[in-house]
Amino acid sequence: IEQAINHAQLALQVYTREKYPNDWGDQHRLLAALYADRTRGKKEENLEQAGKHIKLALQVITRKEYPQEWFEIQAILLAININTIIHEEINPYRFIFSDTYNASNSVEATDKIDQVIINMQEQLKVFSREEFPEEWGRIQIFLGFAFTMLLQGERAINLDKSIAHYRLGMQVLTRDAFPSLWARGQLGLINATYFF
Q1: For 89-120, what is each residue's pLDDT tens digit?
Q2: Do 61 and 73 touch, CB atoms closer than 8 A?
Q3: Cα separation, 192 vs 129, whole angstroms
Q4: Is 71 exposed, middle or buried (0-12, 13-18, 19+ CB in 10 A)?
Q5: Which residues of 10-22 are buried (b: 16+ CB within 10 A; e: fewer)?
Q6: Tens digits of residue pLDDT in 117-171
Q7: Measured between alpha carbons, how far is 146 from 139 in angstroms, rounded to an integer?
Q8: pTM of the entire structure?
Q9: In whole angstroms, what is the distance from residue 139 CA to residue 137 CA?
């Protein structure tokens, strides 16, 4: 991945937005995917880099003009949102139950969870249940997780939303078809109903 990142960055020295807008956007799309999959360095920083490259790519890759490439960017964005929400750095409970609790860390984590919830709700507009049932179900499961982790707002309402999203996700992510995701949904329901 490191070599691919380096080559894509070198290509951007030639593929400028002004001279080669399509190639410029495509290189940023590639860099977003590479940073999302990168294992070297801090996961949070890699996801941040991936997000920056997505924003740049979407400046030239539109749904109307380049639907396939635009869709691929949306899939990368979904992966980033899922990775962000399951990454321990944004788990506000990690700060509450640790000896080094810091209220500002909890606020920062909650802000990140809020943003991921917004992003994933937008993803539901792209990945419909009818056309993309697996992706739609995954989004529902991870929205369930996000609402369970959300400290901001009315706790009972957040948990109610969490339970609803888990149940929606498991309507399409069945035990037979997607055993791992189904099990994750079951565990999420246990947590959400326990806290409820």
Answers
A1: 444 434 333 333 333 345 666 677 888 788 88
A2: yes
A3: 23
A4: middle
A5: ebbeebeeeebee
A6: 888 888 888 889 999 898 899 889 989 988 888 877 888 899 999 999 999 999 9
A7: 10
A8: 0.66
A9: 5
